[in-house]
From TrEMBL:
Its main location: membrane. Pfam families: Per1 (PF04080). Coiled coil: none annotated. It comes from Penstemon smallii. This is Post-GPI attachment to proteins factor 3. GO terms for biological process: GPI anchor biosynthetic process. The lineage of its organism: Eukaryota, Viridiplantae, Streptophyta, Embryophyta, Tracheophyta.
Length: 333
C-alpha cells in the first residue's frame, strides 16, 4: 500500500509542478487520469511489504526506488502515446508533455535521432581535432624553441576538449532525460560557448601576450562559472540561460563576421559560411516544430546542421594555422 501511496504522491507532485509548467499535453485531464490509473495498477513490484518511508533497514534497496521513478516515467510515456494517438484521430496537433514533444522511444532511448546526431557531432569534432593535431605537430615547421609558429595551438586543443565534452553529454541527455544528465548537458554547452567567446576575442584581436590573454579570459571565466553555479545549485532558470547563451553566441558571431569582413585572411569565405550557417541554424531552435513520425524535430535538425559547420570550422582552423605559420616564417626571413 505504501508503494501505491508513493506513486500517488509522485503523480500529485507532477501535477502540482505541471500547473507551473503549463504545457498543454500534461494538463489534459484524460492524460492525467491515465497516469494516475497506471500508477495504481501498472506498478506491481515483486517484494511487497517494504516501505520507502520507513527506517533505513525496512527501506527498499536503491534499485527498487529507482524502479518506482521509472514506473512513473513509463506510465507517462505509455499514457502520452495513447493520448496522442487519440488526439491525432480527432485531428488535433501534437502537444508538449512536461515541456517536451511526444517522442517515440527506440530501445528505451528517448530521442534516438538527436542521440545519433550528437554522436556524429562528437565524431566530426574528434576528426577535426586529430587532423589539426597532425598538421601542427607533424607537417608544419617548428620555431627554434620547438614550439609551433601558430600562436593559438594550445587554445584550439582546449576548444576541442570542451566541444567533445559537450557532445558527449548531449548524447547522454537525449538518451535519458534526468536531472543529472540535463544539468551536465546545459553546463557543458554554457562552458563551450563561454570558451569559444574567449577564443574569438583572442583570435580576432590577435591577443598574443600572455598577460593580455589572462586579462581577457579572467572576467569571461568568472562570469561563465558564476552562471553555471547559479544554474546547478541555485535555480535552473531556462529563460535566463537562453538569454545568457544567445548573448554569448551572438557576440562571438558578430566578432567573427566583422573580422571576416575586414581581414585579408585567405580563408575568410569559410568563416563567412560558418557564421551565416550558424545564424540560420539558430532559427531552428526558435521555430520549434513537433517531431515528424515521433522522431525528427527541430532540435534534432539543429544538431544535424552543426555537423557540416563543424567540418568547415576545423578546416578554417587548419587553414589559419598554415596561414599564420607561413606569414611568420616570411617575416622572420
Ligand atoms: Zn540537444
Amino acid at each position: 500500500m505504501a508503494r501505491r501511496r508513493f506513486v500517488l504522491f509522485l503523480v500529485a507532485l507532477s501535477w502540482f509542478f505541471g500547473l507551473f509548467e503549463a504545457s498543454s499535453g500534461d494538463a489534459d485531464p484524460i492524460y492525467q487520469a491515465c497516469v494516475e490509473q497506471c500508477g495504481k495498477t501498472g506498478c506491481n513490484f515483486t517484494s511487497p511489504g517494504n516501505s520507502i518511508d520507513g527506517p533505513w533497514y525496512r527501506q527498499e534497496p536503491l534499485y527498487m526506488q529507482w524502479k518506482q521513478w521509472d514506473c512513473l516515467s513509463d506510465c507517462r510515456y505509455d499514457c502520452m502515446l495513447s493520448r496522442e494517438g487519440e488526439r491525432l484521430k480527432l485531428g488535433y496537433k501534437p502537444a508538449k508533455y512536461h515541456g517536451k514533444w511526444p517522442f517515440k522511444r527506440i530501445y528505451g532511448i528517448q530521442e534516438p535521432v538527436s542521440v545519433a546526431l550528437s554522436a556524429l557531432n562528437l565524431a566530426v569534432q574528434f576528426h577535426g581535432w586529430v587532423s589539426f593535431f597532425i598538421l601542427v605537430n607533424y607537417k608544419l615547421p617548428f620555431r627554434p624553441n620547438k614550439k609551433t609558429y601558430y600562436e593559438y595551438t594550445g587554445l584550439w586543443h582546449i576548444y576541442a576538449i570542451f566541444a567533445m565534452n559537450t557532445w558527449f553529454w548531449s548524447a547522454l541527455f537525449h538518451s535519458r532525460d534526468v536531472d543529472f544528465t540535463e544539468k551536465m548537458d546545459y553546463s557543458s554547452a554554457v562552458a563551450l560557448l563561454g570558451y569559444s567567446l574567449l577564443l574569438a576575442i583572442i583570435r580576432v584581436f590577435n591577443v598574443r601576450l600572455e598577460a593580455a590573454r589572462v586579462m581577457v579570459a579572467a572576467p569571461i571565466i568568472a562570469l561563465v562559472m558564476t552562471h553555471i553555479l547559479y544554474l546547478n545549485f541555485f535555480q535552473f532558470d531556462y529563460g535566463l540561460n537562453l538569454k545568457f547563451c544567445v548573448a554569448m553566441g551572438v557576440l562571438q558571431m558578430i566578432l567573427w563576421a566583422v573580422w571576416a569582413g575586414v581581414t585579408r585572411h585567405p580563408s575568410r569565405l569559410k568563416l563567412w559560411i560558418v557564421v551565416l550557417g550558424s545564424a540560420l541554424a539558430m532559427l531552428l531552435e526558435i521555430y520549434d516544430f513537433p517531431p515528424y513520425q515521433g522522431l525528427l524535430d527541430a532540435h534534432a535538425l539543429w544538431h544535424a546542421t552543426t555537423i557540416p559547420l563543424t567540418y568547415l570550422w576545423w578546416s578554417f582552423v587548419r587553414d589559419d594555422s598554415e596561414f599564420r605559420t607561413s606569414s611568420l616564417i616570411k617575416k622572420a626571413k
